[in-house]
Amino acid sequence: xxxxxxxxxxxxxxxxxxxxxxxxxxxxxxxxxxxxxxxxxxxxxxxxxxxxxxxxxxxxxxxxxxxxxxxxxxxxxxxxxxxxxxxxxxxxxxxxxxxxxxxxxxxxxxxxxxxxxxxxxxxxxxxxxxxxxxxxxxxxxxxxxxxxxxxxxxxxxxxxxxxxxxxxxxxxxxxxxxxxxxxxxxxxxxxxxxxxxxxxxxxxxxxxxxxxxxxxxxxxxxxxxxxxxxxxxxxxxxxxxxxxxxxxxxxxxxxxxxxxxxxxxxxxxxxxxxxxxxxxx
Length: 281
Description:
Layout: E1 2-3, H1 6-16, H2 24-33, E2 41-45, E3 53-58, H3 69-72, E4 75-80, H4 83-90, E5 102-108, H5 112-121, E6 126-136, E7 154-155, H6 162-168, H7 175-187, E8 191-194, E9 200-206, E10 212-217, H8 226-240, E11 246-250, H9 254-262, E12 273-278
């Protein structure tokens, strides 16, 4: 096991950039860490400088009051070149507490059986929470400006909008998720469409691992092209900044899948990222 320091994190980012899409979530974490974004992550490799596995995990927990959703969920972001190396690192003492609630986020579906085998050995109950397409956009050629009359009402979110966004988030609704939403709005790009009274009715944010997320439009404002326009503007801005542009779409979410693929987002046919839970929360 090797804990990456400042210089190793920069080198790892460069290597992971050539290993998309499997590496994109860990790459996104390192992308923001290396640019000074706030974080509470420890980055671990199985070996260095040659590595086959990198894991981004929460550092030692502090007080309950300081936890956000990522800390509360004890989320691990994982990149692995092969399942044997992943199993070996996860099985190393101190990497995973097999008796504690943990969310392994982004496990390569082709390596999942190795994680399940470890869980059985440790008598740990598990659940597959979600299986995701990893949709990436590499250029802006598919992004066309839709004809619309609301461009002047598109603006970044501000911290006072965090409560509204949290209340509609599939994984939100509590104090921990509110802190995460506030962090996303305060430190990362976001966009929203305002109504005539200056209230957000559609929005798009970025997670700490750089993925587009929390896309939502109020029911009465749907079918107006808001989501497509927000994605288009955000994606162009991110590409211009050298930022990775990607999202996770759950299998079965046909509406989101059609939306992103219509804008040029593509996925690797035989690759899925799995959100895999250890123990009950």
